[in-house]
Write a structure and sequence with these properties.
Layout lengths: L4 H14 L9 H7 L7 H5 L9 E8 L1 E5 L6 H8 L1 H11 L6 H11 L5 E3 L3 E4 L5 H10 L19 E4 L2 E6 L1 H12 L7 H10 L3 E2 L6 E3 L4 E2 L7 H25 L8 E5 L6 H7 L4 H8 L10 H28 L23 E7 H8 L5 H18 L14 E3 L6 H4 L9 H15 L2 E2 L2 E2 L6 H11 L4 E3 L3 H4 L19 H11 L13 E4 L1 H4 L3 E7 L5 H24 L12 H16 L3 E5 L5 H9 L4 E2 L6 E5 H15 L1 H6 L3 H12 L1 H4 L1 H13 L9 H35 L2 H6 L3 H8 L4 H13 L5 H28 L1
Antiparallel strand pairs: 1-8, 1-9, 1-11, 2-3, 2-10, 4-6, 5-6, 7-8, 11-17, 12-15, 13-14, 16-17, 18-20, 19-20
Length: 810
């Protein structure tokens, strides 16, 4: 989008006007004129707003679960446990009577009684001689302590990645890094065309992991316009990246001899920490857990060892934070005695996997790019905080609707200190008590019509569970409860008051309370991505768990996220909503967020103060049907969560009518209406749950023990759902390849020779049809996989070029 001379003139005028007093909030009318937000007809106003369709660029960051299958004598995880000093020391302590033998017996059972031969988040090991020349060069470069100084010393932990067994040198790496090495390997194929080679090497930086799971982020920003049809473009890019990961893993399994050594790597989308990994976490120390599962950060950072230490800090902080949450539960009256089940010192929440969807505004980015004073940053922050406050009211629309994380809890799990997770740090005690009371009622764990929770001793809880038929509960999106997705402001440091540096002040407060650490980025549901840090201005949606279908769920979710963000700016620039309408206090934050967390749990109702100071929430509640004054909570209105979501839809349809029409989102709203009014058929939570149940041959999650349901869920994600998502992605890839193999593209001559070299004269359509089934069923040869990856790199290059052309022409 071009920035005209008149816009630049207005920019300088506003800057000079505001330089004298930067402590005052930016004047909205000045900003409106500066950004070129027009007056006049609704269509004219809508098309000039930030985050209007052709102003949006999008990118996703996806975390996946890695699995290595094989027996315990060939896979790295069980081998590493057996070879560890932790295990050997405990064995000696057992032999001398210094500790109970149960510790070793439990670990032995974990290793020996794994009938599925599945080892979640295990590393891999293979012969060093199998690395090609270029992949070896990449590997050696990534072992440098500071990659900015190529002739500098190596990392101090090199011995973890180069080991010797039976006189043979082995490479030992996490699956996240295996993906990058496989891509490096594929670009070194003899006779490979320059486009595929250069593209592949350019993409290697997009494969990383800073927690536990393999993580990738978008190869290029996707524009919401033209051929991309809004959210369909980012869904296509995400699907393509997912398929490339599948092909790279299949290729690595063969190229590096993993299959012949009894190891098979699989990666898939899975939202919750694996059940067996959670159990292992209860057997070992937090330090040993980090040694086994925290990424070494080989790729993506100049100083990988320092990043690894930072991730260890994150794990320690979250583990301590979870322990400190118990104090809040006791202070709130939820825990009424000293009989609690202490959480493990090692918290496993960083093994949760989700998708972060970032939308950036080209208009705001250009505005900040050409700014020469602090005013630009202040204005960005002030607007951004208000946008976040408005957007948070709409986030319940996404929970279970577009993404989900189905989870089953046994009655013995139903201790508040376990199931409430990080909620004590995310909600005010009033709303926390309300949620816990409603959750106990929803779970129906009652004895003589009174809600009942476990006592503590596991043997006693099992007896009570069987005696009274207490089954626990089923939750639609447990990832949002099990993970610290947002932090509540402190009374002294509001997070969204529009003042630069408010996040730093809040983190200092939270650090003093044992909740968080100043070095970590502030966890938020909708996080501002500031130009000074990111090079663009936008917002990151961090509330997505698992999509059942990337094209059919991520695409409309991206459309809705864009619409809500644009509508927030419309509210602001029309003067309809200002910071004062959504006051900055922990209670007001909690009041709107309780709805979001209640939706994740599946609680049917929530309560809002009749005289709430949140005018924006009042407006939505007025549209909500079936509300009444609460009999239990004096001065509170009882609201149904489903009716609130319908009121949000009504608000969007009324207030965002012009945006919906001009952004071409009518079908997105029709789809949302179906998901809200017929959730059993269209919501992602229901579709994922139904897929799990069908694979298990059951009709209801509550008819299955928790461990059985969770194991079936993991297998469903690993095999059935992964295959379905591969099929969707393969069809997208096939269409892209046919497009660059078409007569129109051939006339341009750009991809002619690369396609001829790879396909040897065959048409793209024939080749893809001939290999589809062997790819989906993982029977493709190394040679076929090599060709497919080379072809995919051509398609990705074409997409990148088209995005560049669109940017230069806008």
């Amino acid at each position: 989008m071009k920035t005209g001379a008149s816009n630049a003139g207005r920019l300088l005028k506003v800057i000079s006007t505001c330089r004298e007093d930067k402590d005052k909030p930016p004047d909205i009318q000045h900003l409106k004129g500066l950004l070129g937000v027009r007056s006049g007809s609704p269509e004219r106003v809508a098309s000039s707003l930030p985050f209007y369709t052709d102003d949006i660029t999008a990118g996703t960051e996806n975390e996946m679960m890695a699995v290595v299958t094989g027996n315990s004598h060939e896979v790295d995880l069980p081998l590493t446990i057996r070879e560890s000093r932790f295990f050997k020391n405990y064995k000696k302590m057992v032999s001398t009577g210094d500790t109970h033998r149960k510790v070793i017996a439990d670990i032995d059972q974990f290793i020996e009684e794994n009938s599925s031969l599945t080892w979640e988040n295990s590393w891999v090991r293979f012969a060093a001689r199998r690395l090609g020349k270029y992949a070896h060069l990449v590997f050696e470069r990534d072992l440098i302590a500071d990659k900015r100084f190529p002739i500098g010393p190596l990392r101090k932990d090199v011995h973890k990645f180069k080991i010797t067994k039976k006189g043979k040198e082995l490479i030992r790496i996490p699956v996240s890094y295996l993906l990058k090495l496989a891509l490096a390997e594929i670009t070194d194929s003899p006779g490979l065309n320059k486009i595929s080679r250069d593209t592949g090497r350019q993409l290697m930086v997009h494969f990383l992991s800073d927690n536990t799971s393999p993580e990738t982020f978008s190869f290029f920003p996707v524009t919401f316009t033209g051929r991309n049809q809004n959210g369909k473009g980012i869904a296509k890019e995400t699907s393509t990246r997912f398929l490339l990961c599948q092909l790279l893993v299949m290729y690595a399994n063969q190229r590096y001899g993993l299959l012949s050594q009894g190891q098979k790597v699989i990666v898939c989308f899975a939202p919750n920490p694996p059940l067996r990994q959670r159990k292992l976490n209860g057997m070992i120390s937090d330090e040993f857990y980090r040694e086994l599962f925290m990424s070494p950060c080989l790729s993506g950072w100049d100083c990988g060892e320092e990043k690894h230490k930072y991730m260890a800090l994150c794990h320690k902080v979250l583990s301590r934070s979870h322990l400190n949450a118990i104090i809040k539960l006791k202070n709130s009256g939820i825990i009424t005695n000293n009989l609690v089940v202490l959480p493990n010192m090692s918290n496993i929440s960083l093994a949760n996997n989700g998708t972060h969807l970032t939308l950036a505004s080209r208009k705001l980015t250009q505005f900040l790019k050409h700014d020469t004073s602090d005013f630009g940053t202040y204005a960005e922050k002030n607007l951004g905080d208000l946008v976040i406050k408005i957007t948070e009211h709409f986030l319940p629309l996404f929970v279970g609707t577009y993404s989900a994380a189905p989870y089953r809890l046994n009655f013995t799990d139903f201790h508040p200190e376990r199931v409430l997770g990080f909620l004590p740090h995310e909600l005010d005690t009033t709303h926390l008590r309300m949620i816990w009371r409603r959750w106990k009622k929803k779970a129906k764990n009652s004895v003589f019509r009174h809600p009942f929770t476990p006592f503590g001793p596991e043997w006693l809880d099992h007896i009570i569970s069987k005696l009274f038929g207490l089954k626990g509960d089923f939750i639609g999106d447990f990832r949002l409860i099990d993970y610290l997705v947002c932090l509540m402001s402190s009374p002294e440091s509001p997070a969204f008051n529009g003042m630069p540096g408010n996040d730093k002040r809040l983190k200092e407060d939270l650090y003093s309370m044992g909740v968080f650490h100043p070095k970590m980025p502030l966890y938020l549901l909708y996080r501002q991505r500031e130009y000074s840090a990111m090079g663009f201005s936008g917002f990151e949606g961090r509330y997505y768990s698992m999509f059942e279908s990337i094209p059919n769920d991520l695409a409309p979710a991206a459309d809705l996220q864009g619409l809500i963000t644009a509508l927030a700016f419309q509210y602001i620039f029309s003067g309809e909503v200002c910071h004062g309408d959504i006051p900055d206090s922990p209670f007001i934050e909690s009041e709107r967020r309780q709805i979001f967390f209640g939706a994740a749990i599946g609680i049917p109702t929530f309560f809002v103060k009749e005289d709430t100071a949140n005018n924006f929430l009042k407006k939505i509640i007025k549209k909500t049907k079936k509300t009444r004054m609460s009999h239990r909570y004096s001065g509170y209105i009882r609201v149904y969560n489903t009716e609130y979501k319908k009121a949000l839809l009504s608000t969007l349809m009324e207030d965002g009518k012009t945006l919906i029409e001009t952004m071409g989102l009518a079908s997105t709203m029709e789809d949302l209406d179906k998901r809200l009014n017929h959730p059993d058929i269209y919501s992602v939570s229901s579709r994922l749950t139904q897929g799990i149940l069908e694979s298990a041959g059951e009709k209801s999650p509550m008819r299955m023990p928790a461990d059985e349901f969770l194991t079936c869920a993991e297998n469903y994600y690993l095999y059935d759902l992964r295959k379905k998502q591969m099929q969707e992605a393969f069809d997208i890839f096939r269409n892209d390849l046919i497009c660059i193999d078409s007569w129109k593209t051939w006339r341009q001559g750009y991809y002619n020779k690369p396609l001829l070299d790879i396909l040897a004269g065959r048409s793209a359509s024939d080749f893809m049809a001939s290999v589809r089934e062997e790819v989906i069923h993982e029977r493709a040869s190394e040679k076929v996989l090599e060709k497919l990856i080379h072809l995919m790199l051509l398609c990705i290059h074409n997409d990148m070029q088209m995005e560049k052309n669109m940017e230069s022409n806008s």
